[in-house]
Amino acid sequence: MTNAAEANKALILRLYEEAVNQGLYEQVADEITAPDAIMHNALYSGQVGPEVIKSTWRSLHESFSYLRFEIEGIVAENDEVAVRGVTTGLHTGTFRGHAPTGKRISQRAHVFYRIKGGCISEVWPLVDHMGLQAQIQGD
């Protein structure tokens, strides 16, 4: 692996450890996301820059206590990083119209990043939204 690929991998590891697991998404997103970063996802269509990262994790942190993202696999090559992992937490806040259930949740994700100039420039998330919705729907 090249030095650039190692640095890109470290950047994404920082994203998940500090922004997600430690809840420092406001600060970290500003530091590691390009001003013109693009999220390739229908939920955030048209949003660019650090706010894309912030709004994603803000919504999850407001809705789920004890939020964590466990990386199960990470691969870096040139300017791209691929992550496979699972988000876990406790549903304690309203999420997309679903009242808090107190249920433990687990959501699988595969996320692909492009890094330019030491910052996240593009994100392609593939997330199991339907699986999460099934977990928090009323009984």
From TrEMBL:
Signal peptide: none
Protein's UniProt name: Putative ester cyclase
SUPFAM superfamilies: NTF2-like
Highest rank taxon of the organism: Bacteria
GO BP terms: polyketide metabolic process
Matching Pfam families: SnoaL
